[in-house]
Amino acid sequence: MSNNKSTPKADDVSDLILNSTEDISNLLKATGSPNRLKILGYLLKESRNFAFMLSRLKIKRTTLNHHLDLLIETNLIEKEEWGRYKISDFGTKFLEILAESFKQIDSEEQKAHRDLIKEYNQWPSFYREPRMVTENTITSKALYQGGWNSYISSISGALISLNVPYDYIYISGMTGYCFIVNTTGMIKTSSIKEIIPKSAWEEIRKGTESFGWKLHYWEQKRKYPGKWNLTEEDFKTSLDVFNNIVKIIDDYDTPVMLFGIHHTGFGIVNGYRNDSYLVSSFLRMEGREEIPVHFDQLKLLDKFSYFYFKNHIERNDIDFEERQSINRAIKFSEGSNYSHEGYFFGSEAYEDWIDSLKNNDPEIIDIYGNSVLGQYYYDGKSVAAEYIDRLARKYKGKPQGIHLKNAFQEYRDAKRHLEKFTFLFPYFEPEKSILSVENRKKGIDILSDVKNSEIRALDFLERAYNSWQ
Fold first, then answer.
1. Domain of 33?
2. What pLDDT, in 10s, does the model give residues 63-111?
3. What confidence tens digit (pLDDT) does each residue in 403-413 have?
4. Where are the alpha helices (DSSP H) in 61-149?
5. Is residue 380 in a domain?
6. Is the separation of the CB atoms in 194 and 163 below 8 Å?
7. Are residues 180 and 82 in the same domain?
8. Which residue in 23, 32, 39 sits closest to 73, CA to CA?
């Protein structure tokens, strides 16, 4: 059995504290000010006059008088003569005890810190050297580009920083991303447009590499997916990811496209400061100040992932790559090779979307989800139409040119239809998206028109691809 009885010395100290709480409290208050501690520090070396302390502390005369009076009242200092002060014997002893106690406490904290670093030796240098600011940014800063597709916005910014002379529209068209339509059984928001099957990602990466840079990709599944905010189980992985990206920044001087930057989207990491990412994100497009992202503040659903370009690769002929982009658009528009359990691609995705409005109870229809998808795919069809129009103009007079022009017109119509849908389900205004029978029918009719436009566009894309010269 342990003995909790205190020692006689402890009893004496306890009695003293309990019987003198007000006096001890006043003493601690007297030494609880940084300026009063500085006064004691100056006087511990030698007596000082009022003018000396006023010049060192840079405070008002009345404030200095107040500090001196309080230290005299608690017997820590004495007036040596008019305008000159010295520390008392009690003040000297008090400061010696205070300094010795502080050294012991500081030593224990430093020992605990070293033990912690020894146990977790992968922590960033900021944790190993808490007084040192560790920062590095890449030479050519990459800026997040316009558009709702965060992957394309980030990839475009990175490629432009590497002197690739193309914009968001062209890069989106070449990767095929703007031709993807992807839904799930219940129309939710980010979980739809960001979860794409691995086989589709492989096609997107091929299109990304068509610009002459090798895309390096890393991902790791979360132990407990489903919550956007990281859990304790994710901490080590998020720290490993941070250290990996720090090394990429330091070794290759290249931006990194990281998922989970501000509201579950991709963003660009241009550097780091201590334990935070220095980023360019969608905040730039809104004219807002960029905010560093702490390494464990990512927003994820099912996995950690990041991309970066490290080295040049041989680039194919531009006409060949543009024809391949049409082939990629056809594959994504058809969608049959990319659908997986619970998700739908291409025309099946529109049918699923229509069924959710037609058959579900109005109370369980995700109004916000419909507004996000409406805006997201309106942006996608706008980009697709612009990209196909550019190719139609480039190849005007060639067999593929007329088919591309017809495909452009269909994507333009799909864009116009989806614009109506965004008025029916306005983004961030769910209270205006009244799910009356009439409004739901309008939504169904609009999506049916979009689906039919895309089916016709697909036919023209296939003709363009087959007749390519």
1. 11-93
2. 888 889 889 988 999 988 777 899 999 989 988 888 888 777 666 666 6
3. 999 999 999 99
4. 61-73, 89-119, 125-128
5. yes
6. no
7. no
8. 23
Question: Based on the domain organization, do 181 and 60 belong to the same domain?
Answer: no
Confidence at 318, pLDDT banded by 50, 70, 90: very high
Residue 59 sits in a domain of what CATH number?
1.10.10.10
Residue 247 phi, psi (nearest 5): -65, -40
Q: Are strands 265-273 and 135-137 parallel, antiparallel or unpaired?
A: antiparallel
Query: What would the DSSP string read from start to end of 351-393?
Result: HHHHHHHHHS-GGGS-HHHHHHHHHHHHHHHHHHHHHHHHHHH
- Measure the CA–CA gap between 31 and 96, rounded to whole angstroms: 13
Look at the chain and report how many structural domains it folds into: 2
Q: Which of 93, 118, 136 is the last residue before a domain boundary?
A: 93
212 CB burial (10 A radius; 0-12, 13-18, 19+):
middle
Last residue of a domain, one of 93, 109, 143: 93
Neighbours of 179 (CB within 10 A): 30
Do both 68 and 201 map to the same domain? no
- CA dist 408 and 389 (Å) reads 5
- Confirm whether 195 is domain-assigned: yes
pTM of the model: 0.69
Length of the chain as a residue count: 469
SS3 state of residue 348: helix
Phi, psi (deg, nearest 5) at residue 393: -70, -40
Beginning with the edge strand found earlier in the chain, give each strand of the sheet holding 77-81 in spatial order. 48-49, 84-87, 77-81
Q: How far apart are CA 352 and CA 398, in angstroms?
A: 38
**In the predicted structure, residue 190 carries a pLDDT above the cut 50:** no
Q: 78 and 173 share a domain?
A: no
Q: Is residue 448 part of a domain?
A: yes
CA dist 314 and 363 (Å) reads 54
Please answer whether residues 255 and 269 qualify as being in contact, where contact means their C-beta atoms are separated by less than 8 angstroms.
yes
CA count, 13 A, side-chain hemisphere, 349: 28
